[in-house]
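Sharing a chain and its predicted structure for anyone who wants a worked example. Both blocks are below, sequence first, tokens second.
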Amino acid sequence: LVQPAVSVGNVGQLAIDLVISTLDMTKVGYFYTDCLVPMVGNNPYATAEENSTELSINAEVYSLPSKKLVVLQIRSPFIKNKYRPFCETLLSWVKGSRCARVVVLSSSHAYQRDDEQLLGTPLRYLLTPDLEKAVGGLMQELNWKEMEKVAAYPGISDTDKVLHIPGGGITKLLFTESCSKGIQMAVLLKFCSEGDNIPDAFVLVNYLNEWLQLAKSEVNSSSQWKIPSSWRLLFGNGLPPALF
């Protein structure tokens, strides 16, 4: 299962859009919850006039059996104080559906990085202990950088370290709950700022592709991904025409 966190810049959701559109995934259902703001809209992945009027809602499930892949796309923000009930419902569904692994695509405020996080790549990963046993060595081979823990009391004590993901929405809660429940979960995230976050989405989805090889790698890493038709309405239609 691959899913986004509703986080800064909506980077995870944009990256999920690219996965669904590129792999031409089939919508198989929806994730019913009262924890998200209700919404409805036209088909964001329309390819012709015939399917452009299909309706989409706030949380939908897509499937690609050939790759044993399920994707949950979340399209609206959380209702106040509903983070924990959503996490409990989601992880219960994950266990009940016997999902082997979960990958959460997320983001975090770039301006809140500490000195160590300013160095090198803006991409980070986290693995629950159960997944660490299975793929930890591969992450080392890929030369990926694990999300650093930061001082719990900056300027007072540097010995107490905690996981801090500012702007990450449900990311930390999902991860810590998965650790305690024995769920194999990975978090892939990018430090970014609010704005036109389409470039961040390409970086994050390419990061995911390094590991899972969902799409064939190209010299131009943007050309391997199919842009959803709904993106024409983003950011004043500011995407380069070559991307369509």
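Comments welcome. The chain has one domain: 2-212.
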